[in-house]
Amino acid sequence: MRRRDLIGVIYGAALALPCGAAAQQAGKVWRIGHVLTAPPEQGEPFARALEQSLAHLGYVQGRNIVLLHRFAGAQVDKLEEAIISLVPQVYLLVVWGNAAIAAKKLAVGVPVVFISIGSPSSLGLSKASRTPAET
After folding, report:
1. Which portions of the chain are predicted below pLDDT 70?
2. Do 93 and 112 contact (CB within 8 A), yes or no?
3. Is the Cα dihedral 89, 45, 74, 117 positive or negative?
4. Which pLDDT does position 113 carry in this prediction?
5. What is the Cα Rg of the chain in Å?
6. CA distances from 36 to 95, 97, 105 (A)
């Protein structure tokens, strides 16, 4: 076999091989912690509602976000334990009710979104209620 024929066969074989590459996920996958002050049977509808609302905005569980739910109940020690377990894993923390007070204390360096709380400034949760040393 001549050299040119051999080179032609090698190039032809290389071109015939599938040139597929593994698909990569576009963008960053955001990890969001979600702490509810209810037992799972009562808090599950709220967790689903958050997932559906985020999906409506284009953030789909498992595709571009990962929601990590924790159902802590009203006990302060379980609430703090849930927050502490989530903080190293998430980029954002979503908390309900008075869990915001524990989250402010424990989630240093992680942005916290609090839902369903009466008066954040009277609880010391708003920026306006902080002392000059805290800001």
Report:
1. 1-26, 117-135
2. yes
3. positive
4. 86
5. 25
6. 6, 8, 17
E strand intervals along 1-135: 30-36, 65-71, 92-96, 112-115
Concatenating the DSSP letter of every residue in 25-81 gives --S--EEEEEEESS-HHHHHHHHHHHHHHHHHTT--BTTTEEEEEEE--S-HHHHHH
**Domains and their CATH numbers in the chain:** 30-129 (3.40.50.2300)
User: According to the model, what pLDDT value does residue 116 have?
Assistant: 73
What is residue 51's predicted lDDT score, i.e. its pLDDT? 92
26 burial class (0-12, 13-18, 19+ CB within 10 angstroms)?
Answer: exposed
> Which one-letter DSSP state was computed for residue 69?
E
Q: Is the pTM here over 0.85, yes or no?
A: no
